[in-house]
Amino acid sequence: MTGNVPESGKNGSAAGGAAGEAGAMSEARAQKIGQAEMGPAFPRTHHVLLLEFGNRQDFDDPRQEWRRLFSELLGTFALVLVAAGGGLLHAKGQISLAAAVVAPGLMVTAIILFMGAVSGAHLNPAVSLAFALRRDFPWKRVPGYIVIQLIGATLACLFLRLVFGNTQHLGATLPGPGYTNWQALLMEIVLTALLVSVILGTASAAQNVGAIAALGVGGYVALAGLWAAPVSGVSMNPARSFGPALVSGDWTSYWVYVAGPIVGALVFALVMWGAYALLGGVSTNFTTAMAITSHAFMTGLISSPLFLLVLYLKAPGTVDLENPVATNIAAVLPEDSAKWLVALCKSFDVFTFWTLILIAIGFAVTNPKKLKGGKPYMIAFGVWAAYVVCRVGFAFIFS
Q1: Distance in angstroms (rounded) separating the CA atoms of residues 228 and 242
Q2: Would the pLDDT of 76 be above 50?
Q3: Average pLDDT value for residue range 187-203
Q4: Which of 106, 243, 322, 333 would bridge 157 by S-S if both were Cys, CB 3.0 to 4.6 A apart?
Q5: DSSP state of 95
Q6: Minimum mean pLDDT among 23-32, 152-161, 349-358: which range?
Q7: In the predicted model, is pLDDT for residue 189 greater than 70?
Q8: CB atoms within 10 A of CB 274
């Protein structure tokens, strides 16, 4: 491995100012450090850097495509083996639900650490699509990745059928007892959108590599499963649901686990693309950070009077002290209020409103030329309004 480092200016003046040093650094010639100069530390350093940051040149080399596809095959096989196998054993009563949903998260962590530098550890058609939409991954490579992911999932379920027989739907993801397909679909859309946000935020281009990506993505998979598994089974991955459905022959509710993850990935990718286009790709600085963190104080100023009003109008025993704004605004409504009005009051989130408004202020301060007048505030208010509409829909459906 060779790297470029700035050459120290031996003839430069030691007393030069900061501007002079910056100029010297920017104009300095690059020198190559070879393997011999690094000594015995080179192989280990090279391996660690490769695992932590990946190698874009190897990742884009068409001659190495077979290695990437085999890596995706192996990784998806391992993930579905653990996810579907855990679901199967939980259905048989041999392991707890917590163990069944945490195991895939731990497996994702391991896969990213040991093979993320090879294929990017997508393991999921929705993730490959999201990377392609962000233009980090060539569209011509997407079909190959998706097909090999489906094959890996199928092989994992064939193995499970060989060991356990065709029982318990082979760990297929299905809506939980008491929940409908539409409820499971909405849950899969939201969970997948959040998963994609974690992946795109921690990935290096189109590669899930390094400890941060491994812990972030694996931790999110486990966390989502711990609270949402009773509703939808928490697939977030069309390949993970495809394998058990194909091998067991049970396609019940399968459309939920294709549409949900794909729509979730598309929604998040489009939202990020729209935000980037509207905001002009502005950069953040200290002013923006201060605007983002100050929302907590603004929220308190708004929510405290509302909470006192609720306490005055309702008996304290009927008020949810842990959620003084979103839930308790609905507490003052008459019992015969329309369901949509109750849902709206339960979903009104002042915290998110002020967060978005103050982020918009921060962007406006950071880059006023690109965000003139009330444009940042309208953008933030539009995002907040869309968020409230989604929350109202969820409250209406699940209440």
Answers
A1: 20
A2: yes
A3: 88
A4: 243
A5: S
A6: 23-32
A7: yes
A8: 12
Sequence-separated (6 or more) residues with CB below 8 Å from residue 139 = 132
Query: What domains lie within the chain, and their CATH numbers?
Result: 53-272 (1.20.1080.10), 286-398 (no CATH)
Q: Residues 232-242, buried b or exposed e (16+ Cβ, 10 A)?
A: bbbbbbbbbbb
For residue 386 the two structure tokens come to 């869309």
Distance between CA atoms of residues 199 and 215, nearest Å: 11
What 3-state DSSP class applies to 109? helix
* Token pair listed for 106: 């731990």
Q: What DSSP line would sit under 189-240, residue for residue?
A: HHHHHHHHHHHHHHSBTTB--HHHHHHHHHHHHHHHHHHHHHHH-----HHH
Is 268 exposed, middle or buried, given 0-12, 13-18 or 19+ CB atoms closer than 10 A? buried
Tell me the C-alpha to C-alpha distance, in Å, between residue 157 and each of 90, 147, 169, 247, 268.
Answer: 16, 16, 10, 6, 30
Q: Which residues are bridge partners to 204 per DSSP?
A: 207
From residue 48, how far is each of 55, 114, 120, 214, 231 by CA, in Å? Answer: 12, 11, 16, 15, 40
Residue 168 DSSP label = G
Write down how long the chain is: 399
